[in-house]
Amino acid sequence: MKDYLLALDQGTTSSRAILFTRGGAIAASAQIPFTQHYPKPGWVEHDPMELLTSQLRVAADCVEKSGLHPGDIAAVGLANQRETAVVWERATGKPVGNAIVWQCRRTADFCSQLQREGHTEAIRAKTGLVVDAYFSGTKYRWMLKNIPGVEEKARRGELLCGTVDSWLLWNLTGGKVHASDYSNCCRTMLFDIHKLQWDEDLCRLMEVPMDWLPRPVENSGPLGVIAQGVPYLDKLAGLPICGAAGDQQAALFGQGCFAPGQLKNTYGTGCFTLLNTGKAVESRNGLLTCVGWGLKGETTYVLEGSVFNAGSSIQWLRDELGIIQSAPEIDVLAESVPDNGGVYLVSAFTGLGAPHWDMYARGAILGLTRGTTKAHLCRATLEGIAYQTADLISAMEKDAGQKITGLRVDGGASVSDFMMQYQADLLGVPVERPEVVETTAWGAACLAGLGVGLWNSPEELLKDRKPGKLYLPETDRSREYAKWRKALDRAKQWEDA
Ligand code: ADP
Asked: Quick check: 301 and 281 in contact, CB under 8 A?
């Protein structure tokens, strides 16, 4: 039976492959971490060949481990770290240099220049983004201007560029397909999210040659076929690639948030919250407007926001303060006290993101008394993550003009029962954590399954969806939430501008 789906999840620190059954169970998986390059402070690079090779190897390993015949696999779906930029030679497939990773700040000065020159509003109107070095456009420009020989090769039309989805797709198809899905295109600062096209003016402004760019495509449907001769994938040649999405949009899809008003939060090192808004909604609170996915001629838009430091504050308690030995211990300690003892922890280690946008804020612990214990600190840390998520969601509700009715969660820190319960209490809506938390890979698998016709519509897919663990609101937390806002104010504008 051709009803397995192979998801390739090319993340920021590792390449992973997961084979899913049609029902969403994991049949096999494989993972390989790859090297992070930090050539200068604030710079982050990956070797595109290492990204590719590790991804191909895990795909082969995963199928091998499962004992399945490649003929059992209906289609392949891709999920990827977003915004990371690659430029390569059309004829040889050789990258002109390392990939510039989303975290890399090397184009911050150029972004400030764009802001000074007054382009912020035009960029927001077309792309839904704030001007930031995070996005791919200025990274392509950097390669053009700074890598010897690139400008000449570009003039001769010898180069191609793309985000990681595009790089993988080009290589998997033996150089036949140079395309990028809408959810990745919209993170470049070059893409008009309303027209679903590259914008000529923005490409000129960022000096990115338009003939470098991949063809924008929907997230589901026949994207290409694994070619003969792709290293490690001899046995998989001929398999169709039928879905692709950037990791956060893939997770939203994997969580089954198909209807406007549905949202998910991923509690990882940071938090990523995405709200399905259906149509494009412009934010007045510094959130991003992005394409969620394009499916059968219809485009679904999202509002996106992030908390910079979430799970990282748990790591800080473990690694810098040493008050817990391992992450799971935080839950045990937090639950050992009846309340937070008046302690609030604002994890603004690197400033505050949406909706506060204060890069001069710094971390703070308020309300300490002689009776404060490490259990209170643990509890305040988990509560602090939940408060920041609630702040973000409240901004989304304002922008979307709509109240949320539930929150779906995933990510490493979402295993904390205490935090999930607290989140439900704060928001006053049910919080649901799915059984399989690999929502990113599952989302890519779902897009591929839809693209190959395993399901006919997202609604049909929902019929197979198993409910996860539910946390229902139990306790009114409005007093604590008011106090949180007071703590937040004390942490804001701490560093001198
Ligand atoms: P990322 O993809 O950003 O690397 P993950 O989704 O893997 O992040 O989540 C890692 C985060 O989850 C870490 O910051 C860690 O502190 C947190 N974490 C892991 N296990 C637990 C736990 N049992 N309770 C609370 N937090 C946890």
From this structure: yes
How far is residue 493's CA from residue 497's CA, in Å, rounded to a whole number?
8
Token code pair at residue 319: 């690694």
Q: Give how far Cα 153 sits from Cα of 138, 149, 160, 202, Å.
A: 18, 6, 10, 21
31 lines ligand 1 (CB under 6 A): no
Ramachandran angles phi, psi of 487, nearest 5°: -65, -40
pLDDT digits (tens, 9 = 90+) for 98-156: 999 988 888 888 988 999 999 999 999 999 999 888 899 999 999 999 999 999 999 99
Q: Is 328 in the pocket of ligand 1 (CB under 6 A)?
A: yes
Test site for ligand 1: of 271, 309, 416, most ligand atoms within 8 A of the Cβ: 416
Residue 301 CB: number of other CB atoms within 10 A? Answer: 21
Contacts of 204 (CB under 8 A, 6+ apart): none
Please state the pTM of the whole predicted model. Answer: 0.93
Q: At what angle do helices 120-127 and 108-116 cross, to 10 degrees?
A: 110
